[in-house]
TrEMBL record:
Gene Ontology CC entries for this record: VCP-NPL4-UFD1 AAA ATPase complex
Biased composition (Polar residues): 213-222
A Gene Ontology molecular function term of the record: polyubiquitin modification-dependent protein binding
Biological classification of the source: Eukaryota, Sar, Stramenopiles, Ochrophyta, Bacillariophyta
Positions with biased composition (Basic residues): 12-22
Domain of life: Eukaryota
Domain UBX: 411-489
Skewed-composition ranges (Basic and acidic residues): 1-11, 352-363
Protein name: UBX domain-containing protein
Species whose genome carries this gene: Fistulifera solaris
Matching SMART domains: UBX (SM00166)
One Pfam family it belongs to: UBX
Region: Disordered, residue numbers: 1-49, 130-161, 212-244, 352-374
SUPFAM superfamilies: Ubiquitin-like
GO biological process: ERAD pathway; ubiquitin-dependent protein catabolic process
Length: 494
């Protein structure tokens, strides 16, 4: 019985102690609980903020692609193909027939011609990779954080918004450009790239390059020695008599990327309003600025071979057998750095060419400031053409003191750019006013070449015309040499 009373007493004492303890510790416990709750809420808010930012970045990128009309050409993943070389002077690639079947399955096709982004993927890319895009923050809660599915981004976003998208593309691709398609006859798993497209992709020196090899060439060398096999594979070039039709395979003709090439369908690429083309130094030396009417030059590159113009691309042009390379410096509209140049009025301006370290002191090549469009078919006329000074041509040897002064660079009428070629391969080039210059001035230009003491005459080909000193007092215009360009050959007299 004493044990039961002792237990009862102990229970009562313990109950009194428990009733007193919460009074002493309740304030500290509440403070700790409040701190823990605030910390949990802070962590939850940070996770929610990070989630909203990630969702906003993803939605922003997708919206940019919706505005641009980006469409993948595969149901499973982005389409990547192996690059092979094909003939062609422009931006027309060759694709497998399965791509045509996939594209024609769409009920509506919003754009003609079909435009593609052609890029070499960065194997280390993880979205988002651009520092600017990583720091992009969603609007505040009281602002509208719903991104429109229509073309609101195209109309309302400023240029910096598009620059963020372009910056991300520069991280996604080691190099990329744009083009259209020439035919759907390529072998499955391969994409045919013409030389201009391959060169645009290989501007990044980190991209491995290779040359394709004709399988038939490999088969014919199986029974040869190892050295002969390696030699055949290293050449791998097509015969001179083989067809050069655009889109046909050009085994080993030029380097192509040795990495997978992603092909993406772009359905809403903007049509161009203007562009700036900058001639290369070699083009200037070849007499680009001496062309009075550049319409034929541009028609060759922009009408016959180009469907798109991307900043950084090289446009190859030809005029009277002379090749001129022009770099695309800028395009308008500029938000994607690429425009369509088919069925649009495109105003072209020329940028300043690179400095020529070999030109004479005081001489300067000044590009034209005005190039006026001639209508819908991309015709252009140089309204105030600048001309190339004589020292800008390769292997030109002209003593300005001994020759008639060249006409001003701003003069556009009655100017003929003359090139004289000697039997030893030397060349002399100069501009003449055909009304003032005489055949004696033409002969004086020829004498700047190393011709020795032998007598000579100047001749032209197709048709053949002969010019001699006996008629030296005749003006060039009277002698039948008119404004434009003329090439004379030095023909020594026995």
């Amino acid at each position: 019985m004493d044990f039961e009373r002792a237990a009862e007493r102990l229970k009562k004492d313990h109950s009194k102690i428990q009733r007193r303890r919460p009074v002493a510790t309740s304030a500290q416990a509440k403070l700790q609980a409040e701190r823990a709750k605030q910390q949990r809420q802070q962590y939850a808010a940070e996770r929610e903020k990070k989630r909203r930012q990630e969702d906003y970045i993803t939605e922003y990128y997708r919206q940019c692609e919706r505005v641009l009309g980006v469409q993948q050409l595969s149901n499973m993943a982005p389409l990547t193909l192996k690059a092979v070389s094909i003939h062609g002077e422009g931006d027309k690639i060759a694709l497998p027939p399965s791509i045509l079947e996939y594209m024609t399955a769409f009920e509506t096709i919003s754009q003609s011609p079909w435009i593609f982004r052609i890029g070499v993927l960065n194997p280390d890319y993880h979205f988002p990779a651009s520092p600017t895009l990583q720091q992009l923050m969603p609007p505040e809660e009281n602002d509208s954080d719903e991104m429109s599915d229509d073309d609101g981004t195209e109309d309302s976003d400023n240029e910096s918004s598009h620059s963020i998208y372009l910056e991300e593309l520069s991280q996604k691709y080691l190099a990329y450009t744009h083009g259209t398609v020439v035919e759907f006859t390529q072998e499955e798993g391969c994409v045919g790239l013409p030389e201009p497209i391959a060169a645009a992709l290989l501007k990044n020196p980190t991209i491995r390059k290779t040359r394709t090899v004709d399988p038939s060439t490999i088969s014919t060398t199986k029974n040869k020695g190892e050295d002969n096999v390696d030699e055949e594979m290293s050449l791998g070039e097509t015969d001179d008599d083989s067809p050069k039709t655009a889109g046909h395979l050009a085994w080993g003709a030029f380097d192509v990327p040795d990495l997978p090439v992603e092909i993406t369908w772009i359905q809403k690429l903007p049509r161009g309003n203007a562009c700036e083309l900058t001639p290369t130094l070699e083009a200037v030396r070849s007499g680009f600025y001496s062309l009075q009417d550049i319409k034929l030059v541009l028609e060759q590159s922009l009408i016959r071979t180009r469907a798109t113009l991307s900043v950084g691309d090289t446009v190859h042009t030809w005029h009277r057998g002379m090749k001129y390379d022009l770099q695309v410096s800028s395009v308008t509209p500029s938000k994607y750095n690429t425009v369509i140049c088919i069925n649009t009025d495109l105003e072209v301006e020329f940028g300043k060419a690179p400095d020529d370290d070999t030109k004479e002191k005081g001489q300067e090549n000044t590009p034209s400031e005005n190039v006026k469009p001639l209508g819908q078919a991309l015709g252009y006329k140089l309204s105030s053409p600048a001309s190339m000074s004589s020292a800008s041509a390769t292997n030109v040897k002209v003593e300005a003191i001994a020759l008639l002064d060249e006409p001003p660079l701003t003069q556009t009428d009655h100017v003929c750019t003359v090139q004289i070629r000697a039997p030893n391969g030397e060349k002399a080039q100069r501009r003449f006013d055909v009304r003032q210059a005489t055949l004696n001035d033409l002969m004086a230009l020829a004498e700047t070449l190393e011709l020795g003491d032998e007598q000579f005459q100047l001749v032209t080909r197709f048709p053949r015309r002969v010019y001699q000193r006996i008629d030296g007092r005749k003006s060039l215009e009277t002698a039948g040499i008119l404004a434009g360009q003329e090439v004379f050959l030095v023909e020594k007299l026995s």
